[in-house]
Amino acid sequence: MILENAPAAVTWLVLVTAALCAGFAKTAVGGIGLFTVVLAATVMPAAESTAAVLLLLIIADACAVARYHQHADWKLIRQVVPAVLPGLLVGTALLAVLPDSLLRRIIGGILLAMAALQLLPRTPRPSRGTAVATGLAAGACTMMANAAGPVMSLYLLARGLDKRRFLGTSAWFFAGVNLCKVPFAAGLGLFDGEMLVRTLILAPAVLLGAFLGVKLVDRLKQSVFQRVVLGATAVSALALILL
């Protein structure tokens, strides 16, 4: 990890930035949520950073649900959710046989390909089979590299949702997924008192990021919002491949 032995001030600066990204991603540009994962992993051991990021994301999920809960498209959520658990199992199996660095690069390559498809002329809206495939991919990617955000962002873009339906649907989906991951992390002993205190200290940064995200989205036109999400997803995919 690049900054694992950095001074405490640098570590806290990185963590505050990660917390800001978590809040901002949930209420504005979902594609940048992966930067929270990348930043935390530079200053914390892998398992600890995964658990710490999960707690930050749950706070950010609560902010997004509070703001956009009435805009969720529950039909889309019901189509995707049943395949998430099998996706988690697939991700677990792949983790057992492939190195983490290779998995990240595979996911990044898939995301780049999916992002490129968004630039092609629009085809009919994705079928139910595509929703199932998205659920599988989201479950697998969140288990392997906490990268389900870009997967869902690309799927929701393909469905042509307006920005508030996009954010409301994403908010409820990830609130459920992240809460489901808590017992697994707790069972592995990844939560302790020090981590909970650190999360409380970072919570205001998450809230600030969420507030800034809301303000930005209110000013973005729909076409600009779509391009920003697509661009952020592509950058996240590159980060997976290169880092």
TrEMBL record:
Keywords: Cell membrane, Membrane, Transmembrane, Transmembrane helix, Transport. The chain crosses the membrane at residues 12-39, 76-95, 132-158, 170-191, 197-217, 224-242. InterPro entries: TM_pro_TauE-like, TSUP. It is found in: Cell membrane. It is a multi-pass membrane protein. One of its GO terms (cellular component) is plasma membrane. The keyword S-adenosyl-L-methionine does not apply. Pfam families: TauE. The keyword Glycoprotein does not apply. Belongs to the 4-toluene sulfonate uptake permease (TSUP) (TC 2.A.102) family. This is Probable membrane transporter protein. It comes from Kineosporia babensis.
